[in-house]
Amino acid sequence: MVAMFQPPFCPADEAVRRVQERGYAVLEPRAMAHAVGVDLDALDALLPSWERLEVDGYLKDGGRYRRRRHSCFVLDAEGIAQAPHRAHWQSLEYNALHGGMQRWFEPIEPAVAEAQAWRQLLLGLGRWCSALRGQRPWYVEAHQFRIDTTDGIGRPTPEGAHRDGVDFVAVLLLGRQGIKGGETRVFAAAGPDGQRFTLEAPWSLLFLDDERVIHESTPIQPLDGGQGHRDTLVLTFRKDGFQGDPMVG
Question: Are 147 and 65 in contact (CB under 8 A)?
């Protein structure tokens, strides 16, 4: 039996305060759903789309262990709008391995991006961002990930411990099957404090203040020699436009 550290879950009504105090908050699925105002059963209806992700062809380690889709959204006082499809771009400052590249991924399927539960999830997390930084438009990049053991080992964060160059990051664990590893690690960006734990339940949430903490997930390996995978949804929230665009003020 592989030992796993339990996540430091907090109640739904303490999430924003926990981010203010520590730079991150971790919520179990029911608390997450209550906090953002979304139904878990409706979110579960989106999970089959993770079976249809495309192989990430940009991995510089030559691996074939990551599948993903990517789309962008803008949240403002009018609600939520999907942005025209665009490349994912990060600077080398934040991603020394894959930064500086225009990475074009297949978009998230319309049935997912237009689902009411999806919109409620993004808008609910956007309200947290505004509570923490003030009311403003938020530029959201959404990444569906599946990390598998096709290569014998899968790396959720091949770039290592990192920041994303945004204001806030939401990491939702959606499933673990036939694997060991995949431990989440969060470190203070300006100090020695750190936390390690393993997310297991679908729709568990790690919400990060990207300016204050560094994060990573450890590699996964198969159990009993079989195939396995780990599914996540990563949502980044940025106030100054999408990365690579001029600042919008």
Answer: yes
- Classify each residue of 38-70 as buried b or exposed e, where b means 16 or more C-beta atoms within 10 Å of its C-beta: beeeebeebeebbeebebbeebeeebebbbbbb
Degrees to nearest 5, angle at CA 51 with 27 and 155: 65
Give the Cα separation of 158 and 75 in Å (integer). 29
Return d(Cα 238, Cα 94) in angstroms, integer: 14
Separation in Å, CA 54 to CA 106, 141, 189, 226, 233: 7, 17, 33, 21, 15
Helices (H) and strands (E) in the chain, counts: 5, 13
Contact in structure between 35 and 124 (CB atoms under 8 Å) = yes
Whether the Cβ atoms of residue 178 and residue 3 lie closer than 8 Å to each other: no
- Note the pLDDT tens digit of each residue in 193-206: 789 999 999 999 99
Closest by CA position to 12, among listed 236, 205, 215: 205
Three-state secondary-structure class, residue 58: coil
- Tell me which residue of 80, 40, 54 sits closest to 145, measured CA to CA: 54
Strand-pairing partners, residue 235, are 142, 170
Q: List pLDDT tens digits, range 212-238.
A: 999 999 999 999 877 899 999 999 999
Provide the residue type at 237 as one letter. Answer: F
Tokens of 29: 């699925």
Whole-number Cα distances in Å, 217 to 76, 162, 164, 190, 220: 31, 10, 14, 20, 9
Residue 238 DSSP SS3: strand
Residue type, 51: E
